[in-house]
Amino acid sequence: MRSSDLVVRLIEGIKWLSFPPLEAYPFILHGFIIKNQIFPPDVKTKEAEKLLQKAFSQKRRLVSLSQIHQDGCVIITSKDKLKRRYKGDALLTDRDDIFISVWVADCLSIFLVEERRRVVGLVHAGWRGTLLGILRRTIEAAKGQFGCEGGDFTVLFGPCIGSCCYQISDDVAILFDEECMNRAQNGKPGLDLICANLKQLMSCGVKRDRIFVTGKCTFCDEKLFHSYRREKENAGRMIGFMGLR
Ligand SMILES: [Zn+2]
Question: What's the gap in Å between 63 CA and the centre of ligand 1?
């Protein structure tokens, strides 16, 4: 696994992050909206979507998810009639007239690019989705639907709550590999979401040197990120998005 820089950019007053390993693919559009005044924590979803579309891609429709912490992956091909919102926690597409998004505040967003078949995907994974294997299921769905191969994927783990701050109960900790648990806080288990999801990538044939991680903890870095654990119900959301040009 390699580390990725974060490049802070500004467009129409919206602060967002761009990731150099994904910038290497000129055929995709990607970004991660961070804390900023244009998207206050209480912004209405519809309003945020409108702003996002205006700033980043006026000719593409933005597609988002009603996220439910399960393992459903929505596949959108050119044959599908488009909806603005789907129920599930992952999206895959080979269409160039939409861009897809996931909304997070501590949970892990995972960016997927399969360069040979020109497929992009986004996954939302907290502990529940991770336990259900949502990332593995999404890669397997891409193989089945588009003929993708594990070795042709580039994967980037976005900022999420780190094992430094993601304390979970013993009942939950026991469900995960001990290797993915950080016990530095008085032995209380802190879950390393990236470790647990990395195992899923390995089982799908994704190459280690094509996996990138930002290494940022959303709880620790109050300046850049919202955090559900830190801000509770008042937490805003970050938005990861991706599309084909
Ligand atoms: Zn932390």
Answer: 30
pLDDT digits (tens, 9 = 90+) for 82-130: 998 999 999 999 999 999 999 999 999 999 999 999 999 999 999 999 9
The pTM score is: 0.97
Q: What are the strands of the beta sheet with 108-114, ordered from one edge?
A: 2-3, 211-213, 153-157, 108-114, 119-125, 90-93, 73-76
Q: How remote is the CA of residue 141 from the centroid of ligand 1, in Å?
A: 32
Distance 10 CA to ligand 1 centre (A): 25
Query: Of 97, 149, 153, 144, which Cα lies nearest the Cα of 121?
Result: 153
Helix or strand holding residue 129 (H, E): helix 127-132
According to CATH, the superfamily of the domain at 2-162+207-244 is CNF1/YfiH-like putative cysteine hydrolases (3.60.140.10)
The 10s digit of each residue's pLDDT in 164-208 is: 999 999 999 999 999 999 999 888 999 999 999 999 999 999 999
The CA-based angle 163-166-172, given to 5 degrees, is 105
